Amino acid sequence: MKNITVGILTLVIFGLMAWTAMNGGAYNGGEHGKIIADIGNRTAAVQESQPQEKSDREKENEALSALREKAGNVAGFKVSDAYKSKCASCHGVDGSGMQYGKKLMGPKLFGQSAETIYKKLEDFKSGRKENLVMKGLLIHMTQEDLRRFANEIGEFPARAQAVKQE
After folding, report:
1. What are phi and psi of 34, to 5 degrees?
2. Which residues does the UniProt record annotate as the domain Cytochrome c (predicted)?
3. Same domain for 152 and 75
4. Structural domain contains residue 59
């Protein structure tokens, strides 16, 4: 009895498949398929006639490109490779600070004294000032490393002045 029931169900399924194929469903290029193709053509025509506005992703990519360009530009004065690799991506090669849209990436360092910079670096390293990026960058640095960065950043105005006089 089971075999007869399975056989009848199989014949019904095949019959339904043949009936669907003969009526030309959407996926077989029938009338429904023509309607779907027509909708696609109309949508493409409307998109072509309207001026393309930049998507959010494109706007973000342009802003990031501008940031990369600013970070990669060579300052008017020499900076160490350590500063370039650790600090320039957020604070700029010349310490002028960086902004991403309206969000501040890294504040301006140019013009601050070596002592001020050193104290701020210690505060970030110890956790007295909260900034995960800064803490991550400074966690394995020695006090000597912090002093070296602070001294270099503190010299930026004098270096810029020397370049201007040349």
Report:
1. -65, -40
2. 71-157
3. yes
4. no
pLDDT per residue as tens digits for the range 39-52: 666 655 555 555 56
Are both 116 and 81 inside the same structural domain?
A: yes
Domain that holds residue 17: 2-49
Contacts of 96 (CB under 8 A, 6+ apart): 108, 110
Token pair in block for residue 141: 């640095």
Please give the Cα distance from 50 to 130 (Å, whole number): 47
pTM passes above 0.85: no
The backbone torsions φ and ψ at residue 45, rounded to the nearest 5 degrees and listed phi first, read -65, -40
Kindly state whether residues 21 and 81 are assigned to the same domain. Answer: no
C-alpha distances out from residue 39 to 20, 23, 31, 50, 152, Å:
23, 21, 13, 17, 64
CB of 133 within 8 A of CB of 162? no
Q: Side chain identity at 33, as an amino acid letter?
A: G
